[in-house]
Design a protein that fits this description.
The chain is of the alpha/beta class. It has one domain: Rossmann fold (3-Layer(aba) Sandwich). It is about 30% helix and about 25% strand. It contains 7 helices and 10 strands. The strands form 2 sheets. The protein has a 6-stranded mixed beta sheet. It has a 4-stranded antiparallel beta sheet with strand order 2-1-4-5, covered by helices on one side. A hairpin with a 2-residue loop joins β4 and β5. α4 crosses α5 and α5 packs parallel to α6.
Length: about 250
């Protein structure tokens, strides 16, 4: 896989946690009720990790992903990404931080239907200081990296589900973010397309060193990761914390 242009974003050393979470808690209000979602979460994610967050509906896995990505804020606890306490950032600062440091991969792709694959991937670069020619070079390199160099001028409705998700992955990595977060990235794909997308994410992790955090309810998808963390009722199950998980043997 081709390398992407170097980013100016600060990266932690290999011995420092990229994501450092200590005693994190989060609740939501439903009318007069306070509903706890996460309780006393402590977790380290190292640079270059590919981590899957698993758990039943309501376990808090998507909430934890949103907190790490700076989409939401915790009620209590410490959350640092690349050494920065993102809980101390204001809304405008947090938006700038997300744009510079986080690439998002969603279940339903979230592509703009009126834009080509090239234009969808270029969107995050429009907020940077790159020239038009620099943006073009980066977009072409990124789409080539996900195997879509022959689909630059195709619109989303002219692409398969797997190809649309690859465009979404290209859009997520085109700025060379510090962190990739994926929320059920294979949830809307057939088995073959899902396997293709997971293999792509594994290559991004192994060959480009991308740190990936993926929420999934699918055990097969989770086994594409290097590490699986199970959550239940807002807590990390201790027997699964920091254990490298291997796919089940095929008989």
């Amino acid at each position: 896989m081709n390398e992407l242009p170097d980013s100016k974003n600060a990266k932690p050393t290999a011995t420092e946690a990229l994501v450092k979470i200590r005693r994190l808690a989060k609740s939501y209000r439903r009318g007069d009720q306070v509903v706890p979602v996460l309780s006393d979460i402590s977790l380290d994610i190292m640079p270059g990790d590919f981590t899957a967050l698993m758990g039943p509906s309501g376990s808090g896995k998507s909430t934890l992903l949103n907190l790490i990505a700076g989409i939401d804020k915790p009620d209590a606890g410490e959350l640092r990404v690349a050494g920065l306490d993102i809980t101390a950032l204001g809304e405008s600062e947090l938006a700038d931080w997300r744009a510079a440091n986080v690439g998002f991969i969603f279940q339903f792709y979230n592509l703009m239907p009126v834009l080509t694959a090239f234009e969808n991937v270029e969107l995050p670069l429009m907020l940077t200081g790159l020239s038009r020619s620099e943006r073009r070079a980066r977009v072409e390199l990124t789409l080539d990296a996900v195997g879509l160099s022959d689909r630059l001028q195709h619109y989303p409705n002219e692409l398969s589900g797997g190809q649309q998700q690859r465009v979404a992955i290209a859009r997520a990595i085109v700025t060379d973010p510090t962190l990739l977060v994926a929320d059920e990235p294979t949830g809307d794909l057939d088995r073959v397309s899902a396997a293709d997308v997971l293999a792509m994410m594994q290559r991004l992790n192994a060959e480009l060193g991308k740190t990936i955090i993926m929420v999934t309810h699918d055990a097969n998808a989770a086994h594409a990761a290097r590490k699986i963390i199970h959550l239940d009722k807002g807590e990390i199950l201790p027997e699964n914390l920091n254990e490298a998980q291997q796919p089940p043997e095929k008989h």
